[in-house]
Amino acid sequence: MTPRKWFVSACQRPGQPASLAVPALALLLALSAAPARANDLKFHGLLDFTLSGTGPAFDYNALTHGDTPFDAYGLRMFGEGAVGEHFQVFTQGVFHDHSGMYIEGAYVTYTPLPERDLHVEVGKIPFPVGTYAPRSYSDKNPLIGKPLMYQHHTTLLWYYQPSTADALLAVAGGGQEASSYAGPGSTGMPIVDDSYWDTGIVAIGSLLPLEIAAGLTTGTPGWGNTSADENHSKTAVARIGVAPIPSLRVGMSGAYGAYVVEALNEHLPAGTTADDYHQKLAMADAEFELGHLELRAEGYHNTWQTAHVGDLKVKGGYMEGQFALFPGAWLAARGEAMRFSELTDSKGAVLPWDHDRDRLEIGLGYRPERTVWLKAAWQRNVEKFTGTNLPNEIQNLLALQMTLGF
Question: Which of 23, 165, 234, 295 is least surrounded, with the fewest CB atoms within 10 Å of its CB?
Fold first, then answer.
């Protein structure tokens, strides 16, 4: 079984068939075909065509459902509209050959006072941490790939705890390749899973210069609970930001909640339950614009508490720049790093619990028409074998992409 097939099976919960997303997507398509009044749902989409290389660098970009931003084609459908004066609905479906069809988002927004910037979102919502989510779409992302912190799968699982440091270190680096300590097909958790929105409720608003978001989700940023809640805990998520001048925006985000599934209770240390092991995430973000130049950065420090090997930490971030060359054309680059805390194995060796990683992506873009985007990108992935005598593994990926909006 290939790594990308493993991704599809690994994102299923026990007893949950892969076809559950299909009826929901069929409903979305049925709604789009139904007669609509002026204030009913309106539908639009993004169609991506990409020519890229294959191999490990391609697989490094795989998302939780098995699709990647570098797939030969991808279709994303949106449905949104007002229901009365105070309510809006939003749905988002994704179509890829490797992942099939799935619903990424479906929620209702309540605006109590239309003249104020205050909204409450309820349903399958994006995690309100950081600032990348609105820029993750192919018509907003100046490059093709996603940042590591929103995409790369670590070796740690939400449904199986590592029994010893040796067991975890033996498969370090296997989370993205779906080969973890639970065996083949075990895809680990990202820091924030931008492709797997969670169910929850969040209030979002601004009172210039402040920006505020706060709410609760059933799962954690590393693994959303979208069918049945898998433990008795909820995750608190929040972001506070400030925009003192139009060209500058800075903020801090956080999340705290239990990530382990309740089914593991009988295998956990006496006196503990799944609700005692949390993901603790702290993030910082900044954006700055000056003339033709846009600069963005996000950093994070994440901790997963575990039952047998202590706290597993990972930190890192990215810096991204975009420069407008002439009307409709831009040059963009994103550099990033991911660093893991250390464990001591049974022989006394001290090693990172997962493989440190760097990624650099550079690209050119051009928008010949209002709803057409063309991109060319080069991505360099570096997997580091810190603490060993092994050389770094470097994988490169070249890609051309065309996006059509309709």
Answer: 23
- How far is 138 from 320, CA to CA, in rounded Å? 16
Closest CA to 235 of 247, 250, 244, 225: 225
Peptide bond into 209 cis (omega under 30): yes
For 231-265, write each residue's pLDDT tens digit.
Answer: 999 999 999 999 999 999 999 999 999 999 999 99
The total of other beta-carbon atoms located within 10 Å of residue 182's CB is 17
Q: What are phi and psi of 158, to 5 degrees?
A: -90, -20
Largest CA distance in the chain: 70
The rounded distance, in Å, linking the Cα atoms of 315 and 338 is 6
* Tally of CB atoms within 10 A around 323: 15
What is the pTM for the complete model shown? 0.88
Tens of pLDDT, residue by residue over 364-401, are: 999 999 999 999 999 999 999 998 999 999 999 999 99
- Using DSSP's 3-state secondary structure scheme, residue 191 falls into coil
Q: H helices within 142-287, ranges in order?
A: 148-151, 165-169
Alpha helices in 138-210 (DSSP H): 148-151, 165-169
Question: Of 241, 174, 233, 163, whose CA–CA distance to 200 is shortest?
Answer: 233
